[in-house]
Design goal:
Elements (H helix, E strand, L loop, with lengths): L1 H45 L8 H33 L3 E9 L10 E8 L4 E8 L4 E9 L2 E2 L5 H11 L12
Antiparallel strand pairs: 1-2, 2-3, 3-4, 4-5
Pfam family, one: DUF4446
Keywords: Membrane, Transmembrane, Transmembrane helix
Organism: Megasphaera stantonii
């Protein structure tokens, strides 16, 4: 019987220890649940913006807007290509030189002005000012060359126009 009491005592001690472990685990579960609830509240607060919308919904809207902006950017690039193609046919290069055609007349009242398009086609307009008369000459320019003889001033204005550095470059689409 003594032997039986020891076994019964051992079972009781084992059951007590198991019960104590279960109570400790239950207390640990309760503590963890409270922490999870607190974290969940912080997460919910963090994931809402000032209007009450969730950050996830806001991100979806922003991504959709970015896709719309990409389409707009593509259209802008196409329009820019069209504008640059048309611009090649517009006058956009200018060379201008003022000079004295005659020694006895001052103030640089004579001039040579060259106007070219994107293909270096255009004209050179020159005016020679004298005391008793003024003359204006126009000479065609084809592919950067004049088919007629040119004065030094006309050549200088043509050279200025040909070396114009204000070219419009397209924005690269990366």
């Amino acid at each position: 019987m003594l032997y039986g009491l020891d076994a019964q005592l051992a079972y009781m001690i084992g059951a007590g220890i198991a019960g104590l472990v279960l109570v400790l685990l239950l207390a640990y579960i309760v503590i963890l649940n409270r922490r999870i609830k607190a974290l969940e509240e912080k997460y919910t607060f963090f994931m809402k913006d000032e209007t009450g919308k969730s950050v996830e919904a806001k991100l979806r809207e922003d991504v959709a807007e970015l896709h719309g902006l990409q389409d707009t950017l593509d259209r802008i690039h196409e329009t820019q290509k069209d504008i640059l193609a048309v611009q090649n046919h517009c006058f956009r290069k200018i060379g201008f030189v003022r000079y004295n055609a005659f020694d006895n007349i001052g103030n640089n009242l004579s001039f040579a002005c060259t106007v070219l398009d994107g293909k270096d086609d255009g004209f050179c307009l020159s005016s020679v000012y004298g005391r008793s008369e003024s003359r204006i000459f126009a000479k065609p320019i084809v592919e950067g060359k004049c088919l007629y003889g040119m004065s030094e001033e006309e050549k200088e204005s043509l050279d200025q126009a040909l070396h114009y550095h204000g070219d419009v470059q397209p924005v690269r689409k990366d």
